[in-house]
Structure prediction request, 249 residues.
Amino acid sequence: MTDENRDQLVERQTAPAWAVRLNRLTGYAVNDFGGGPRPWKFAWVINFQKCGTFFFLGFLMWYYQNFSTTAWVYLAMQGSYGLIWFIKDIAFPDPAWQKRITIGGGINAFVGVLGWYWVFGWLLISGISTPNYPLSDGAWYALCVSMCMIGSVIMIAADAQKYFTLRYRKGLISSGMHRYIRHPNYLGEMLIYGSFALMVWHWLPVLILAWVWLGIFAVNMIIKEASLSRHAEWAEYKERTKWLVPFVF
Prediction:
């Protein structure tokens, strides 16, 4: 019996109705909103925001004449992350981002989610946020930079493993970056953007991340797990792994 036949005999897990509805609503908003022609790939919208971050933050530093150490560190963190993402997308593009979307969908994706990430840097560089970190500035920079670097490595390694593994062998990925947690790519992203929020040290990035992590990330993970449950080895894999943090959660 082939792996495909065995998978067909497994009872699939069903995602909660609320998660399915929210996932469909989000999908419509960023893919199909307004109808009409589909001139853009979703990846183009994402890459525009990611690559533009470095230049946007540099412009803010010039506009507000803020060349403090904090501003430079933040530019290096979020600006470089955007360029890292673009390099990753060139090397091993995620098939999910290659779909064509409507003009309205692209605008919604940028205005509703991606553009809000630029608010982080604006709060910090404009002076609206005046961080009073719990630790010394140097120690706090070290913490945030470390989180950003570790998150970037986890995200890139997980996406690379997924891309090259599924290119040559379909099925459940349960080794490497997926050995102890089921969603390492999301963990990487959360560490990265969590480090940005800690640098800004303002309540608004916390609200933005709460919406993205709960309304998009968590829903996507629930939908993904329902899909992966078709594999025969899913039950054993789920039993021995955690969602995001090894041995904890």
